[in-house]
Automatic annotation (TrEMBL):
<dbReference type="Pfam" id="PF01243">
    <property type="entry name" value="PNPOx_N"/>
</dbReference>
<protein>
    <submittedName>
        <fullName>Pyridoxamine 5'-phosphate oxidase</fullName>
    </submittedName>
</protein>
<dbReference type="InterPro" id="IPR011576">
    <property type="entry name" value="Pyridox_Oxase_N"/>
</dbReference>
<dbReference type="InterPro" id="IPR012349">
    <property type="entry name" value="Split_barrel_FMN-bd"/>
</dbReference>
<feature type="domain" description="Pyridoxamine 5'-phosphate oxidase N-terminal">
    <location>
        <begin position="8"/>
        <end position="131"/>
    </location>
</feature>
Amino acid sequence: MAKVFSHIDESLREFIGKQAMFFVATAPSDGGRVNLSPKGYRDTFAVLDDHTVAYIDLFGSGAETIAHLRDNSRITIMFCSFTRNSRILRLFGTGRVVRPDEAEFDRIRRHFGTLHPGARAAIVVDVERIADACGFAVPYYELVDERPVLDAHHAKAPEEAYVRLVERTRRSIDGLPALEPDHPLPPSVEQ
């Protein structure tokens, strides 16, 4: 059944690498809404070392994770197997936002392939607790393919669309600060 791990070992890296999606959960410090976001594109997640992971955050409908990390840095990432081998893995930790215009972003992006269009930031998580669970009640699903819709949307979006997205996501739905006004546009549309 449930087990706690001291670090992200090779078997956990292998499990993580096989998952086509993951979930990110954050919450503000004082009231407000808990945010739980599904994330796709398996090449947007990387294990950096035994206690550090990162994922490439893409422009989307909001910036709740960024706002919550700025507020208190708490984050949980969950992987859930939908195959015959049932397993749930949670990585509990503290996260931070690394913008594309920061030097650290270039070091982090080396852990990923080609950046997806619409890359907004890297979320880096210092993992403090690693625990799995059985997942016996999780249904079986078969992966058909990754959904190309977000990449296709970002690939054809004009620079003005990103300027509007930055403006629209300057605050979370609870009013917390999220993206700064000078947040860089994705690398593919910057001038």
